[in-house]
């Protein structure tokens, strides 16, 4: 008894290589797809489709990390409903632990907005810069922006250079952070934080709002893109805007900048409650194992008792 779990896009092609006598079941867990991340790459999308289809024919299950991803897998990739299992994304208990505080850039100490994520167009960072430019032209005093569209590469990508040019051209008060660092997460706990902005154009799930909820950061401003709608509810756990709509995003950020202390505290509490109730990843995994691989839970019990 064993189960092989293929996590993310590189393993979606396992299906055609599985034999009928393989001594394991297969679960594929795509946290995104090329249709969402690289819609112009039709060759890769076909490869994913063929791999997922072959896997399902061989009896594999496909995990959906959000209601949005379930619909996406069923409608765009043609995965039968019976083959899709819900495995909502979330945070592990260790993710809730305090992160050692890192010094803020001096310009951010008086107040800042934070936006971070992978440096890809689907994250919508250019829409954020357009929105901040709109607010400035309307006379709004926009706090310093900590902008972290990150990669692990040594040199800037074309997309990062485009964002840098926008910051310069719009004269946006910003610190540009192109390299990934875990210290950015510590800034979610800073008392100088005025808001966390998630301007995604497409989002299978959206982990950053959960990071904010775990750190009691508020308010969160997010687009109504994909899985973000399941965590950021307008006026409840944050403020929302249409994806690819800088004007609407500017309006949502403006609302966030004028939030009162009581409403901020309420959003902190509601976000934390939602995180613990629906996005405890350890509880989600245990629930999946109990339902689909109960033998794994039975095998683990003696190990815990003998420890």
From TrEMBL:
Domain (Glycosyl transferase family): residue spans on this chain: 109-272
Molecular function as annotated in GO: glycosyltransferase activity
Superkingdom assignment: Bacteria
InterPro entries (alphabetical): Glyco_trans_1
Alphabetical keyword list: Glycosyltransferase, Transferase
Pfam family of the protein (one): Glycos_transf_1
Record flagged with keyword Glycosyltransferase: yes
PANTHER family: GLYCOSYLTRANSFERASE (PTHR12526), GLYCOSYLTRANSFERASE EPSF-RELATED (PTHR12526:SF637)
Name of the molecule in the record: D-inositol 3-phosphate glycosyltransferase
